[in-house]
TrEMBL record:
Pfam families linked to this entry: Amidohydro_1
Gene3D superfamilies tied to this protein: Metal-dependent hydrolases, Urease, subunit C, domain 1
MF-aspect GO terms: hydrolase activity, acting on carbon-nitrogen (but not peptide) bonds
Top-level taxon: Bacteria
Phylogenetic lineage: Bacteria, Bacillati, Actinomycetota, Actinomycetes, Pseudonocardiales
Transmembrane regions listed in the UniProt entry: none
The protein's name: Amidohydrolase family protein
Organism of derivation: Amycolatopsis acidicola
Domain (Amidohydrolase-related): residue spans on this chain: 53-383
């Protein structure tokens, strides 16, 4: 039997508050229990982390392992065969893990490579994957292989289900990184989105829809989707102020709002101008959703540019506070709420007996100082200790 590990630290975030002097006991891949101000069990290997805060491993609900966070990740992926792509995806996944992102949901790869990664043993985060996102011919991310002809969306969902995906991702509007598409334009007819949701639910799979355009968001809500990514209410010349009833419907239907968050500052690199000038308005809309008590999670879209490496999620914390969460609620968004949204409730997102032994230890108290979330002291993934620290870019 593997030795139990007792992690001693100064604080522990239990999902709603900070508790002092925790002793967190890991037994294999699970958490055996948490005690406070108590000697560690005599049979356990003790890991002392003075001054540190223990948190559940973070969960990035939206990234792309196949994009390498270079200046042109689409072109870089095109030069790689599947073996080379898998190697680069391993680098990306381990980078996320070292930052304490112990679960990632890949919402778009090429040829189901993320499923191959998911099923590989080794020091990787827990991976959930959608496979190639379903799109229209020439549509957003068509080069990932998920384009379907008119009338073909049900068959595409079935194929994804047969391949064993965890979630269905549909590109309901155009996107930033596909020339020839427009964020403000829907890609599918409302009936096609409905058919896809019906088919996915028959297979027991949730559907999350990439939707910038207000019309695409409305179509997704009407279709009864489980999640909407970006939710920017993007218009041709700016950002729409959504009708209050639409905000209320998103909240009432408990649709997961996948807010896109987390930017690493890189000298001389800016987000695309059309994104940068809309960001304050997009954040104002996210604030409206928070005030309406919508079910919001943070996905980094990691991999899309040098500003979005795969370990960027902890940097979403200050923005979550800016759009209306108290710091403790914001930490819960990155952990327990994200776990529920990904279908992992009861398994991940909390430090409690019986949960997976996914732990992030950081230096300081991230409730007092959000930057502390980036100061990694230790990471455990399914009970294995991971070497901390961020590798050089590349
Ligand atoms: Zn994305």
């Amino acid at each position: 039997m593997a030795m139990r590990i007792a992690v001693r630290a100064e604080r522990l975030f239990d999902g709603s508050r900070m508790l002092a002097d925790p002793v967190l006991v890991l037994d294999g891949t699970r958490i055996a229990g948490v005690d406070y101000d108590f000697p560690p069990p005599p049979d356990a290997l003790v890991v002392d982390l003075p001054g540190a805060t223990l948190l559940p491993g973070l969960i990035d609900t939206h990234l792309h392992l196949a994009f390498d966070a270079s200046p042109d990740p689409v072109a870089a992926l095109a030069t790689r065969d599947d073996d080379a792509a898998l190697r680069a995806m391993g680098v990306a996944a381990r980078r996320a893990l070292r930052a304490g992102v112990t679960t990632v949901r890949d919402l778009g790869d090429r040829g189901y490579l993320a499923l191959t990664m998911r099923d590989r043993p080794g020091h990787l985060p827990t991976i959930l994957a959608s496979g190639p996102p379903i799109t229209v011919p020439g549509g957003h991310c068509h080069y990932l292989g998920g384009a379907v002809a008119p009338g073909g969306i049900r068959a595409a969902v079935r194929e994804h289900a047969e391949r064993g995906v965890d979630v269905i991702k549909i590109m309901a509007s155009g996107g930033t990184y596909t020339p020839g598409t427009r964020q403000e334009d829907p890609q599918f007819e409302p009936g096609e989105i409905r058919a896809a949701v019906e088919e996915a639910h028959q297979h027991g799979l949730p559907v999350t829809v990439h939707a910038h355009a207000t019309k695409s968001i409305v179509d997704a809500v009407d279709a009864g989707v489980d999640g909407i990514e970006h939710v920017s209410f993007w218009s041709a010349d700016g950002v729409d102020v959504p009708p209050p009833e639409l905000i209320r419907r998103i909240a009432r239907q408990r649709i997961v709002v996948g807010a896109t968050m987390g930017i690493r500052p890189v000298p001389g690199v800016q987000p695309p101008a059309k994104v940068a000038r809309r960001l304050p308005l997009i954040h104002a809309n996210l604030h409206r959703l928070v005030k309406a008590d919508a079910r919001l999670v943070a996905g980094s879209d990691g991999g899309l540019s040098p500003l979005k490496p795969h370990d960027v999620l902890p940097r979403a914390l200050p923005l979550l506070v800016r759009i209306g969460y108290r710091p403790a609620q914001a930490l819960r968004v990155l952990t327990e709420v994200a776990a529920e949204a990904c279908g992992l409730a009861g398994r991940k997102g909390r430090l409690a007996r019986g949960f997976d032994a996914d732990v992030l230890a950081v230096d300081g108290d991230p409730i007092e100082d959000p930057a502390a979330l980036c100061r990694v002291r230790a990471v455990f993934a399914m009970g294995s200790r991971i070497a901390a620290g961020v590798p050089p870019p590349g």
